[in-house]
Design goal:
four-stranded mixed beta sheet, five-stranded mixed beta sheet, 10 helices, 13 strands, alpha/beta, binds oxa(dethia)-CoA, Peroxisomal Thiolase, Chain A, domain 1
Length: about 325
């Protein structure tokens, strides 16, 4: 499998830290120092499915293909306005594709899980061109009076098209059932027969626990993958890491003894966009002409579950 096209869409509404100071007991200084975030893009008038469809069109166009060439769609998504049908089904109709579609939810690691599934499907000969989209609106999961969580997130949709080829060098997925540090619990419709007590909770996060687990697990995944490919840390052109917090990116750079030029980032402008963060950043690099044929890129993400996903790809476009 290899990546042949990328696309992205950000919502139009820019929310700065100073705007949050208007209604939260927070400060630009605190948010910047603890997270690196200066502003984030939030859904206001847009619908996530329209953003995801447009990001998909852009990726298909970048690949030099048309929607009829796509023979499978995988959409990574945690939340959107529909519980069912899957977002991938809506995207299929909007872009005019005809193939089978499926959604995956592996929280912020979802894009890597989706890429890994696409690789299996291409290897098995069941598909030739797969659209992998990650579309997320985590700003709809948080309590906007909870300063500990709402300042962290942003919305967005990123997409890639993958085709047959030799660009997917290695991947590693891990899951450790650990629900107490990061979860969002949604209340279901009532029935006349429910007798159990039910709970609703906006996104809960034990930030410190997640921070530590993220740095440890991502560093371990990266080391394991580099070793399995016989690569040194400096053989990778860019580490395209899940954009949750600038301090997590810096901690991983420190662990690998690499300077920050290996770690492109956009968390300062986009906030944490969950599983969309890696394809959003990849599309920026692609469209800014920063990727050359033969470059090796390492993607690494972590999220609720606790899930992690990492892979090394060779840029062959
Ligand atoms: O993709 C999902 C994965 N999520 C993550 O990767 C998040 C990982 N964790 C983090 O990024 C950091 O833990 C946070 C940025 C969430 C928090 O930073 P921290 O350095 O771990 O701060 P803390 O939670 O220990 O809180 C320190 C203080 C507390 O006040 P006290 O108890 O010391 O008086 C908080 O109440 O900062 C306070 N605080 C805030 N103050 C101003 C928490 N949020 C805010 C805020 N503004 N927005």
């Amino acid at each position: 499998m290899r990546i042949v096209g990328t696309g992205r869409v950000h919502p139009s509404k820019v929310v700065t830290n100073h705007m949050l100071e208007q209604f939260l007991d927070t400060s630009d200084e605190w948010i910047k120092e603890r997270t690196g975030i200066t502003e984030r893009r939030l859904i206001s008038s847009e619908r996530l499915e329209d953003m995801a469809s447009e990001a998909s069109r852009l990726a298909i166009e970048d690949a030099g293909l048309s929607a009829s060439d796509i023979d499978y769609i995988i959409c990574s998504n945690v939340i959107n306005e529909y519980i069912t049908p899957g977002l991938s089904c809506i995207i299929q109709g909007n872009i005019g594709a005809k193939c089978a579609c499926v959604d995956v939810n592996a929280a912020c690691s979802g894009f890597i899980y989706a890429l890994d599934m696409a690789d299996d499907r291409i290897k098995s000969g069941k598909a030739k061109n797969i659209l992998v989209v990650a579309a997320e609106e985590p700003t709809r999961m948080v309590d906007w009076s909870d300063r500990a969580t709402c300042v962290l997130f942003g919305d967005g949709a990123g997409a890639v098209v993958v085709s047959e080829g030799d660009g997917f060098m290695a991947s590693r997925l891990t899951t450790q059932s650990k629900t107490d540090c990061l979860y969002y619990q949604r209340k279901l419709e009532p029935t006349p027969y429910i007798t159990k007590e039910e709970h609703f909770s906006a996104l809960y996060m034990n930030g410190r626990d997640v921070f530590k687990t993220a740095v440890l697990s991502s560093s371990r995944d990266i080391k394991t993958l580099l070793d399995s490919c016989g690569l040194q840390p400096s053989d990778i052109k860019y580490y395209v890491l899940h954009q949750a917090n600038m301090r997590i990116v810096e901690a991983i750079a420190h662990y690998l003894k690499l300077d920050m030029s290996f770690f492109p980032h956009n968390v300062e402008r986009c906030g944490n966009t969950s599983s969309a963060s890696i394809p959003l950043l990849l599309d920026e690099l692609n469209r800014e002409g920063k990727l050359q044929r033969g470059d090796k890129l390492l993607f690494s993400a972590f999220g609720a579950g606790f899930t992690t996903g990492a892979c090394i790809i060779e840029w062959t476009k």
